[in-house]
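Can you give me the bound-state structure? Components:
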Amino acid sequence: NAGVTQTPKFQVLKTGQSMTLQCAQDMNHEYMSWYRQDPGMGLRLIHYSVGAGITDQGEVPNGYNVSRSTTEDFPLRLLSAAPSQTSVYFCASSPAGDHGYTFGSGTRLTVV
Amino acid sequence: AQRVTQPEKLLSVFKGAPVELKCNYSYSGSPELFWYVQYSRQRLQLLLRHISRESIKGFTADLNKGETSFHLKKPFAQEEDSAMYYCALSGYSSASKIIFGSGTRLSIRP
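Here's the bound-state model for the whole set.
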């Protein structure tokens, strides 16, 4: 099992560009989530999903879109990148009914 | 609303000294509490959860519903405990949504 795989590991964007952060898990987990990690603010929940076709907003959803067409994949789209979106992004997954999330290694995004 | 507060950004203790990382929460329903740890250059990983009442790497945490706290404790700190620690909360009926605190960096001095 590869666990939770995030790509790319690093990315630099210009303001206004769009991109998709990829997240895939091979553990057949129902739950998947996206977080951003900023110094002094911990991890903040962006969007989460309880299964294919079902997504919901977290604490800081503005400027981000998600979709969950399969159990394995949960991509995060930045619609029009802004410097405030410079952060480290983590994807995580968990079996339904369990509360222990498995995290990916993160994507470090810089918006200039 | 779910809320997790970790009042200390940095905690520095000597090797062999006791450690207590504070966590307070706010949640109207029945909470599930967790501690996650992130070692340098590693991904975030689950350390322990209150429901299992386990001790991992010498760490324990007790849920105090009266004080709405879930402090992480270890009687004797080791240098390898240096890491970033996050307290996290989900609702019993909403396991998919986990909210994290702002984290405490634990530094163990030799």
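A couple of observations. The first strand of chain B starts at residue 3 and ends at 5. The mean pLDDT of chain B is 91.
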